[in-house]
């Protein structure tokens, strides 16, 4: 090994998360990456794959049994990464062996008991080795806490933290993950709710939560290290919650029903069902998607003492979701290789790097993130859903969407649209034929939103725009029996209306059947302007119009 290279031993390299972490670590030319696990053949297959991709790191393999870590010392590692799991019920034997071998230690632990005891168990070995020992370098609790740090910069108080995660049904899952969930499902979970530490059953209180980019999904109370980290690090006045969910409602609610067997003491644990339930989830997977996500929502008071809400969201497409839990570990290994963490200690991967650094290993993957901010008690709809971003908009945009008084404006618009069924749809909704039209817009505030009337010559198009009842960062426009959900994305001269979902009355409609909506309101030259385009994959352009208003 070259003196400039450092050896990273990745244990569990062939697992769901380990293989993805291996691809991230193999990007560095100053690394000798040792792929380690109990069986040699899968390791050699992964080594061959990395060789074909021309990864710049030097790649080798080694058989290492986490339960008998005597082989670590002979490998002379600089960092040992444990991606094997499960961590529930584990002691400090393996991380202690890594430290005794002269290595830093990083793991992807999501087990609450393991993470809670980690600092105390490893304090003496860390001091003796003068090496870092970092646990929970994964989605939980690393990304959760980094998101809260990012969202609450400058806040004076945190009242509520509500985090959730939902993988796609087609995402690969190891049996150990299913076993870990079944270990606490239906059992007692200590949680901070309504300002008190209490006990609730695991996988209880199923509820629907908005996951940006994914829509509404079911979640239930999950036993994760976040429940401790969120309470102790941020001291919220009301709640510190973490939920997990299965994409397919029958599977999620089915597990909730099974958890009742343990709650009613008909079964001591659900773990014996792990193999059967894992197989069932695999059979049902084609009914779901390969899209997963995570969301962290915080409520409190901003720097001026005003109520504020903020949400960080991540969603992954095309099966990229399992890369997310590996990213914080890759970021921690990079920080150790670059000597960027300071004096060694033992603890959770919390406060060691900003959110952007933990997400950096995901660059180039079909994974997106977003931050939304809202002002829950602002007087108008758009000031509420845009939060502090509303105050930065141009004056004419703020005047039009302040929501505190009835506003009537005149102007002109150029309309366009297709023929046939598209023309019929326009006529039924009161929309104009293609061409130039005089335009009058009336916006009347009402409880929870606004009523809009757009008069194009002799035709009037009416709609109600209301706050989403279950999401303070979204709003909905209702036209006849159809309701369309949007979120507002601000930019320097205005904001865009980003279409998220639609429904017929209370019935959600498939996204594939929905329209494609592009809408924005903005200022140019001190004048309020707008552009709207609604198209449909079957009908083509239904209507579009652009123009300006004054008054």
Key features of this structure:
Dihydrodipicolinate Reductase, domain 2; single chain; 27 strands; seven-stranded parallel beta sheet; 551 residues; ten-stranded antiparallel barrel; Rossmann fold; Lipocalin; 15 helices; DUF4166; alpha+beta; Sacchrp_dh_NADP-bd; 3 domains; NAD(P)-bd_dom_sf
The CATH first-level class of the largest domain comes to: Alpha Beta
Strand arrangement in the largest pleated sheet: 17-18-19-20-21-22-23-25-26-27
Indicate the radius of gyration in whole angstroms.
27 Å
List the uncertain runs. Answer: none
Contiguous helical run count: 15
Mean pLDDT: 93
Q: Identify the overall geometry.
A: elongated
Q: What is the helix content?
A: 25-40%
Query: What's the total number of strands?
Result: 27
DSSP strand (E) fraction?
Answer: 35-45%
What does this structure look like?
There is one protein chain. Helix 5 (112-129) links the parallel strand 5 (104-107) and strand 6 (133-135). Helix 7 packs across helix 10 (274-284). 27% of the residues lie in helices and 36% in strands. The chain folds into 3 domains: 6-138 and 323-362, Rossmann fold (3-Layer(aba) Sandwich), CATH 3.40.50; 140-319 and 366-372, Dihydrodipicolinate Reductase, domain 2 (2-Layer Sandwich); 381-550, Lipocalin, CATH 2.40.128. Strands 17-18-19-20-21-22-23-25-26-27 form a 10-stranded antiparallel barrel. A 7-stranded parallel sheet has the order 3-2-1-4-5-6-15, with helices on both faces. The chain has 15 helices and 27 strands. The longest helix is centred in the first third of the chain and has 18 residues, at 112-129. It is an alpha+beta fold and 551 residues long. Residues 8-109 form the Saccharopine dehydrogenase NADP binding domain. InterPro entries: DUF4166, NAD(P)-bd_dom_sf, Sacchrp_dh_NADP-bd. Residues 393-549 form the DUF4166 domain.
């Amino acid at each position: 090994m070259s003196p400039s290279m450092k050896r990273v031993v990745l244990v569990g390299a062939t697992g769901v998360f380990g293989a993805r972490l291996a691809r991230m670590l193999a990007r560095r030319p100053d690394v000798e990456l040792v792929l380690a696990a109990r069986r040699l053949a899968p390791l050699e297959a992964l080594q061959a794959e990395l060789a074909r991709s021309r990864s710049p790191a030097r790649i080798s393999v080694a058989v290492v049994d986490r339960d008998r870590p005597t082989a670590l010392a002979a490998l002379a590692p600089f960092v040992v990464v444990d991606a094997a799991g499960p961590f529930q019920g584990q002691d400090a034997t393996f991380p202690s062996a890594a430290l005794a071998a002269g290595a830093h230690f990083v793991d992807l632990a999501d087990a609450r008991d393991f993470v809670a005891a980690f600092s105390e168990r490893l304090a003496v070995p860390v001091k003796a080795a003068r090496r870092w020992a970092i646990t929970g370098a994964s989605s939980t609790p690393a990304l959760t806490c980094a998101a809260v740090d990012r969202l609450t910069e400058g806040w004076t108080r945190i009242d509520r933290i509500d985090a959730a995660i939902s993988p796609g049904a087609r995402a690969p899952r190891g049996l150990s993950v299913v076993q870990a969930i079944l270990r606490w499902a239906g059992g007692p979970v200590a949680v901070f709710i309504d300002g008190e530490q209490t006990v609730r059953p695991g996988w209880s209180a199923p509820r629907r939560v908005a996951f940006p980019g994914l829509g509404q999904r079911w979640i239930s109370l999950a036993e994760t290290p976040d429940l401790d980290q969120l309470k102790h690090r941020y001291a919220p006045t009301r709640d510190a919650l973490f939920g997990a969910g299965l994409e397919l409602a029958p599977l999620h609610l089915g597990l909730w029903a099974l958890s009742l067997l343990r709650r009613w003491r008909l079964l001591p644990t659900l773990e014996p069902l792990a193999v059967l339930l894992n197989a069932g989830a695999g059979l049902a997977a084609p009914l779901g998607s390969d899209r997963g996500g995570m969301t962290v929502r915080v409520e409190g008071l901003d720097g001026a003492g005003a109520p504020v809400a903020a949400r960080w969201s991540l969603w992954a497409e095309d099966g990229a979701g399992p890369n997310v839990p590996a990213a914080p570990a890759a970021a921690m290994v990079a920080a150790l290789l670059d000597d960027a963490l300071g004096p060694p200690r033992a603890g959770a991967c919390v406060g060691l790097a900003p959110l952007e650094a933990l997400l950096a290993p995901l660059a180039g993957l079909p994974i997106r993130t977003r931050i939304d901010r809202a002002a829950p008690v602002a007087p108008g709809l758009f000031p509420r859903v845009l939060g502090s971003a509303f105050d930065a908009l141009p004056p004419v945009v703020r005047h039009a969407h302040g929501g505190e008084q009835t506003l009537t404006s005149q102007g002109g618009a150029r309309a366009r649209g297709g023929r046939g069924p598209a023309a019929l749809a326009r006529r039924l909704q009161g929309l104009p034929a293609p061409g130039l039209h005089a335009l009058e817009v009336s916006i009347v505030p009402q409880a929870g939103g606004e009523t809009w009337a757009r008069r194009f010559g002799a035709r009037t198009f009416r709609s109600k725009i209301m706050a989403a009842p279950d999401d303070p960062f979204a709003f909905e426009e209702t036209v006849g029996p159809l309701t369309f959900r949007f979120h507002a994305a601000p930019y320097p001269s205005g904001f865009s209306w980003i279409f998220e979902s639609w429904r017929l009355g209370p019935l959600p409609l498939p996204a594939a059947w929905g329209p494609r909506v592009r809408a924005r309101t903005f200022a140019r030259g001190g004048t309020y302007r707008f552009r709207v385009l609604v198209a449909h994959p079957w009908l083509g352009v239904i209507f579009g119009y652009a123009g300006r208003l004054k008054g």
